[in-house]
Amino acid sequence: MVTSFNLSLLLAGVLNALAFAFQFFGQAYTTASKVAIISNTFPIYTALVSPFLLGERIPFRTFFALFLAMIGVAAVGEVWNFKSINRGDVMNFIASILYAFYVINSKKALERMTSWEFVVGTGVISTFLSLLFLPIGFKFSPTPSAILAIVWLVIFPSALGYLLYAYGISRRGAVSSSILMLATVLFGAFTSMLYLGDRLSWAAWMGLLAIGLALVMVSREGI
User: Fold this and answer.
1) Which of 95, 102, 144, 154 qualifies as a FRET site for 42, CA 20 to 30 Å off?
2) Which stretches of the chain are DSSP H helices?
3) How many CB atoms lie within 10 A of CB 116?
4) What is the mean pLDDT of the chain?
């Protein structure tokens, strides 16, 4: 049961729902490679804002890790193939900024509550706000596989994933936590190869290596 409440908790829940909505609906108007890059630029904005809103002092090592990670994300998404910007790109850019402020407010909220309280609180807020988007993009066929997929998403990526995220960011800085969250790009690429049979270009492999190095550097950082 959530026993603590503050403005940062409310903002985190609202920002999470809005960021997901912008990213989800924006994906329909752009390419997957663009989404992979634009939606994962939020560590940059986190690094720009956290010194002012959280008072974080970011070591050079963390900045260098951030640089490596962004180079890696750009290579995996093949940024050189971008030829124009569309509304889907803009929506994902907005989502990335919202995610950055979500991370900032998560850190502030967790200074006054436990990880469990944070997950329950933001989960309730995000769920109720997300109900507003159901008439726009909700399509559901109650097949066994669809129901199983929803149960899986609720238990693992949502409940367990957010709980681990809250536990981790409560013990680290917002910037280093943002960089570590880019592990999703790394694991996503390997999962796509194992389960979907995707093949990565040499540039994508180099990008994954850069992201991996950034993760190692940040994991050894004290911030």
Assistant:
1) 154
2) 7-26, 32-38, 42-53, 60-76, 87-109, 115-130, 134-137, 144-153, 161-169, 174-180, 183-196, 202-219
3) 13
4) 88
- What pLDDT, in 10s, does the model give residues 15-69? 999 999 999 899 889 987 788 899 999 999 999 999 999 999 889 999 999 999 9
Distance CA 25, CA 8 (A): 26
Question: Residue with structure tokens 């994508």?
Answer: 204
Global pTM?
Answer: 0.88
What's the chain's length in residues? 223
Structure tokens at 170: 């409560």
How many whole angstroms separate alpha carbon 173 and alpha carbon 56? Answer: 7
Q: How far apart are CA 85 and CA 36, in angstroms?
A: 14
Query: 3-state class of 155 per DSSP?
Result: helix
Read off the amino acid at residue 149: A
- Residue 185, CA distances (Å) to 14, 161, 207 in order: 24, 15, 10
